[in-house]
Design a protein that fits this description.
The chain starts with a helix and ends in a 6-residue tail after the last helix. With 512 residues, the protein is of the alpha+beta class. A hairpin with a 2-residue loop joins strand 4 and strand 5. The strands form eight sheets. Strands 11-10-20-19-18 form a five-stranded antiparallel β-sheet, sandwiched between helices. The chain has a three-stranded antiparallel β-sheet with strand order 1-7-8, with no helix packed on it. The chain has a two-stranded parallel sheet with strand order 2-9. About 1% of the residues have low confidence.
Length: 512
Amino acid sequence: MKNDWQEQLILSSQNKKVGYGTSNKAQKSFDTRFRIRIIWAAFVFIISLTIAKILYLQVVAGGQHQLTSYSNHIELKRQPADRGKILDRRGEVVEKDNATSQVVGYLSEVTSEEIGCFEGICYSPGMKIGRSGIEHVMEATLKGRDGGRLVEVDSSGQEVRELGNNAPESGSDVNISIDNRLQHIMYNALGDKAGSAVALDMQGKVLGLVSSPSFDPNDLTKYLKDTTKMYFLNRAIAGAYPPGSVYKLVTAYAGLAEGKITGESMYVDTGEIKVGTYRFGNWYFDQYGRTEGAVNLVKALSRSNDIYFYKVGEEVGVDKLVYWSKKFGLGEKTGIELTGERAGVVPDRLYKERITGEKWFLGNTYHMSIGQGDLLVTPLQVARMTLAAVSGRLCKTSLLKGSEVVCSDLGLTTQNIALVREGMKGACATGGTAFPFFNYDPWVMCKTGTAQQGLLETDKSHAWITIAYPGENPEMILTVMLEAGGEGSADTGPIAKNIIDQWKTLRVGPLK
């Protein structure tokens, strides 16, 4: 028989086994319920997120999506405005070939950065705008205002109906002062030579303005690739060169106006002047070993005598030379309606000290008095200077036919103007420097110039000639410059004669 304590131990053990089984079953039931709740919560979250997204798309963003859907079948078709025409002084359309490109300019499409409206002008993709010349300067006038059609299209892109129409407004024409015929004559006369030609009427209006070599504004590809010939440099307004002897017109007026010389004043041509170790020669002596004796102003201009103008420059002094240079429009822009114009350089004492650290010497005055040294001008400035020399008026140059004429009286006496004009007449007459115009009919007034540039003997000079045509009653100033082109009389003279020969044959009636 078992003891009581043994029975109790067995019962206790049996009771523990029964309790353990009951606890395990309850735990499994709890885990199952917990998993179901997690799955249900996830399901509720996903459903809620889906409902929220649907509400956002339908309520919040519905208008935007409706607009996008609407634009899929509504199109705005741009109608570009016709660009205004550029007309010459006779009302003829100025052709866009090489002869006119520096005046007319060229067009190109707007870039992505330029799309939009600026200062009342709107630019859209595919639109072309002026990049240079009159096309650029008069862009707002020439451009016009684009229109557009609002149309409904089907799924294949075919128009269904027109919803609205805003007709384009054509740009306005621009009348410029050049004569298209003269422009081509001048360009062809220059040929393939680097240089420029400028023609002005007696009010400062541009009759022709050519730079060579030039570019075809209809196809810029090859010109952009070749940078050696500087096709896009407008030499007439942006090329700055020493003027050489054409500047002697200014020196002559400075001497007359300052009372340093008269028409009877004489200087003896010694062939050369020496200042210390420096030598300043006359071209006639240097080339032919000859001198010309006593020389007055008319003969000095006719023969372009350097000794005479050295002496006049010395009498006048650098300060008055600078003053009269600026009176004749040098060292400042002419006012022409083109971008890129240069003012040139009229050196003075301060300029030389700032550039070289040296003071101004007599030799610098000698150089300046014959258009050398640091003096730099543009061909357009020389044409305006010549106009002032023969008329006594400094005019603002202009390319626009209808613009106001602005000329100022220089206060020159009629006697002094007559003296200078007589000297210019002699330069283009037998015995002068411009032999291509000897015995020319009708006679003309002119001044030639051969401007040294560079330090080597092999460096060719710039060649100049500036002419008032016809001499009796001038109606046109013509200035021709060849860049490193040789001599004024031998190289630019024939070109200028060719231009005037063709022009006088072509023209009928007064210049309008």
